[in-house]
Write a sequence for this structure.
């Protein structure tokens, strides 16, 4: 769909060949290419601006201007900065010293929360945990059933109290149930909601204050566009997030939302959803994500050459 | 129509970095139209998911118009931009034509965009218009997808043709068409499982549903609507392209416009595709569906 950034930068610098040394103006031209590539990948404009400014600072330094391969050098700088920005992540969930550890998944409608709750359940069981899934979405038609079916398929217990009761009470009930039945993790599935829906955001705050989750994770669709920053900022501001899960990375989206969300919340991206099946949950890799956002599968070989 | 406008505008004005306000802020107090103004306009468009390329094109057209018509008042920019957007989107609202009995409507799209909910909304709307509606639970894959549609069917008061979870969606489609014909139904709406457009086996499954429908009732489906989530960025262009290649589209539905996303990517899509936006979704309830009206949409975007 897009010509890769690496290729574009190569061409930009090829045009300059024969002119001798690369100038600051040439770097500015290259930065325009970087900007366009990031925007095409749906990285939020605000994040792009800050990022490009930082990259530019490094790129007008000796390492690029003096290089025989300035194109590769710029790619290298961009790539390294991107990885650094998304880095520092770990897929580890903070476990409570006093079980059960409570994990709450939140996010916009259709992001993939319910599916991810079941994936996480499977993931944790493989690590020797005893997770309990809790059906706290009382709004979406058949949301409880959806979680029950998924739990059944995986032979994971699902706690539900129907839909005629408040999600706060369901969450409390789930934790009590976990304590009584020796489950060491509780995964709360919550209803999808808009970050601007005050009533429903209040509901999440009530769940938070009554069961004190150890991890509140925002589930974000990798196809999200410029609005990712508003959504992440709002959820983070109101709830205080501990991490992010990026879903639907098995698609062909560049996934610039990853960068936006990380940049505005500072929260690590802990997992990546790679499909609809329960085992399609992976640890998040900042380096792979950086290559993907830039559309450069060949980035590593290029950098090695630089 | 005022409902559409006010509700949409309400949604749009909730946005902190509202495009309308931005454009207004850009033009007010500015003595003349300069390059900085064009650049800021471009950024405003990009922030609305219009996409860098389409935004550049749009602003380039503005530059030309301003030059050709010797426009100097920055206040005129807003109208010019609005006209350009309306031009890209086309001028006519494009309703669904019911010139078949039954009219078969196939709903497709990637995961979680709002297909099943949109079907409930369409069923509700068409039933209220006095049509006899039938639904088909063609998502036999996702957990409890059939139950979800069944609950909507009960709420709306229309019947749902269903098979077991895990069965062949083409078989559901075939049965549903036969039921629609024998019951003298006006509209049959078929739900399908969400699928990512880059998965060829899943796209082939859709083509098969299409072929089976045509065999069951020559000419069916009469409408194939791609549902797009307004929160989606540039990937929506790829979705529109690949779904169109696989099944051919007669229209688009843009959902979740009650959020703060503006669905600007629809401009990039409209610039390259024939299929018009027919409906928009502005909430999770069955009456949260509106006809898409391009001039109104442009006006709502630009104030
Ligand atoms: N391809 C793909 N599909 C996914 C992934 N994660 C979730 N999905 C699909 O996305 C759709 C929505 O997933 P749900 O888990 O129902 O999303 P949700 O956030 O719980 O939705 P609401 O409860 O309605 O807000 C379903 O069709 C899932 O199968 C993923 O990583 N890849
Ligand atoms: N705010 C808002 N939410 C919507 C809208 N349309 C659908 N939703 C919500 O989005 C979520 C997903 O909707 P579904 O209708 O299940 O989406 P789908 O495309 O059928 O999903 P899959 O079948 O899993 O691919 C649900 O929580 C819906 O209530 C809308 O216009 N606005
Ligand atoms: Mg859910
Ligand atoms: Mg569905």
């Amino acid at each position: 769909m897009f010509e890769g950034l690496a290729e574009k930068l190569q061409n930009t610098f090829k045009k300059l060949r024969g002119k001798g040394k690369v100038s600051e103006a040439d770097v500015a031209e290259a930065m325009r290419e970087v900007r366009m590539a990031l925007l095409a990948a749906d990285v939020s404009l605000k994040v792009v601006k800050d990022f490009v400014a930082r990259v530019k600072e490094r790129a007008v330094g000796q390492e690029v201007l003096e290089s025989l391969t300035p194109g590769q050098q710029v790619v290298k700088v961009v790539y390294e900065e991107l990885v650094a920005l998304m880095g520092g992540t770990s897929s580890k969930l903070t476990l409570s010293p006093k079980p059960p550890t409570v994990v709450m998944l939140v996010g916009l409608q259709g992001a993939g929360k319910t599916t991810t709750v079941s994936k996480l359940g499977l993931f944790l069981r493989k690590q020797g945990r005893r997770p309990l899934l809790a059906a706290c979405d009382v709004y979406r038609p058949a949301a409880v059933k959806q979680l029950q079916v998924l739990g059944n398929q995986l032979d994971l217990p699902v706690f539900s109290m129907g839909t005629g009761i408040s999600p706060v009470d369901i969450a409390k009930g789930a934790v009590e149930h976990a304590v009584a039945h020796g489950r060491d993790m509780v995964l709360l599935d919550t209803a999808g909601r808009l970050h601007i829906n005050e009533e429903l955001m209040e509901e999440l705050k009530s769940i938070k204050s009554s069961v004190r989750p150890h991890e509140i994770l925002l589930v974000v669709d990798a196809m999200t566009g410029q609005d990712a920053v508003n959504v992440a900022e709002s959820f983070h501001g109101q709830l205080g997030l501990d991490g992010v899960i990026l879903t639907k990375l098995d698609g062909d989206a560049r996934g610039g939302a990853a960068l936006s969300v990380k940049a505005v919340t500072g929260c690590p991206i802990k997992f990546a959803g790679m499909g609809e099946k329960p085992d399609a949950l992976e640890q998040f890799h900042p380096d792979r994500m950086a290559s993907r956002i830039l559309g450069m599968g060949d980035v590593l070989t290029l950098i090695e050459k630089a | 129509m005022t409902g559409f406008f006010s509700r949409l505008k309400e949604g749009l004005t909730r946005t902190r970095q509202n495009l309308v306000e931005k454009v207004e802020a850009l033009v007010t107090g500015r003595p003349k139209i300069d390059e900085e103004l064009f650049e800021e306009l471009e950024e405003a468009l990009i922030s609305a998911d219009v996409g860098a390329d389409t935004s550049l094109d749009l602003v380039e057209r503005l530059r030309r118009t301003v030059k050709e018509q010797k426009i100097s008042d920055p206040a005129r920019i807003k109208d010019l931009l609005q006209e350009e957007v309306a031009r890209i989107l086309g001028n006519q609202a494009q309703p669904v034509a019911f010139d078949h009995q039954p009219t078969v409507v196939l709903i497709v799209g990637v995961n979680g965009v709002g297909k099943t909910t949109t079907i409930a909304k369409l069923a509700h709307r068409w039933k209220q218009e006095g049509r006899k509606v039938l639904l088909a639970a063609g998502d036999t894959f996702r957990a409890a997808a059939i139950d979800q549609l069944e609950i909507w069917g009960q709420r709306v008061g229309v019947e749902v043709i269903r098979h077991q979870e895990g069965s062949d969606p083409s078989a559901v489609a075939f049965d549903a068409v036969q039921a629609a014909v024998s019951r003298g139904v006006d509209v049959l709406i078929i739900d399908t499982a969400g699928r990512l457009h880059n998965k060829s086996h899943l796209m082939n499954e859709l083509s098969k549903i299409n072929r089976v429908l045509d065999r069951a009732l020559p000419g069916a489906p009469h409408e194939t609507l791609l549902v797009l989530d307004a929160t989606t960025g540039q990937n929506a262009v790829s979705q529109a392209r690949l779904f169109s290649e696989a099944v051919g589209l007669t229209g688009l539905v843009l959902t979740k416009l009650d959020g703060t996303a503006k669905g600007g990517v629809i401009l990039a899509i409209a610039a390259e595709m024939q299929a018009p936006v027919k409906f928009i979704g502005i909430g999770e309830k069955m009456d949260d569906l509106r006809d898409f009206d391009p001039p109104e949409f442009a006006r709502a975007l630009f104030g």
